[in-house]
Design a protein that fits this description.
With 222 residues, the protein is mostly helical. It has 7 helices and 5 strands, in the order H-E-E-E-E-E-H-H-H-H-H-H. The two termini are 24 Å apart.
Amino acid sequence: MSGLFAAHETIGAAVAGVQDAFAAALEGDGELTVAGAGLRVDQVRGIASMRGAQDGWTERDGKRSIRNDTPLGRAFLAYVVGAGRHLTSNAFEQLLTALVRADLRDAEKADLAQFVNLVAAEPLRDPRTELPVWAAVARHLAAGRGTAYFSQEIPELRTSYDPLHAEIAPGAQLAEPLLPEAHAPLEPTLERYEARLRAEAGGDLEGYVREHLLARVAQALS
């Protein structure tokens, strides 16, 4: 997505730094620091999360993973996976601005983990998700819907529901938000969702993101 950040190299470099740090934590010890804020990577699911209590975590073949076999683990997981993802476009913009300033120490950790998943974990797993994610943020900001939980409308994300949902016992407490049935995207596929965004944006999605998101961040930084 080099074209997206062509006029905003500083923002692009900050995002690339998060992507590199996430990839290193995924293959390393799972500990992740982003602009002074500490997170942890679920190395089995391939997503970022808050560190939280040790009771919420387990290990599989030496890889760290959030438990989904206990109510505590499922409640913890629901902050970053499934229908409980409550990151707004306004929060995304604020986190991006703070990232470029290299100071996320006061960021809400659940929001920051979702932010990292959207800008780093998702495109690492499937590069097709990158532009739709950024365009979804811009779409809501442009429409004055900055308080909407935008990521829930995007299909085919790793965090749409628990990738390990088949391991959850039927009827388990606090399981419903983590299941595929709780996911209700605007379109069934990424291709159709991106086409919808392009139609709304007039065709040029990268320009749309630059105008309605990146330019706002650049102005806040100036």
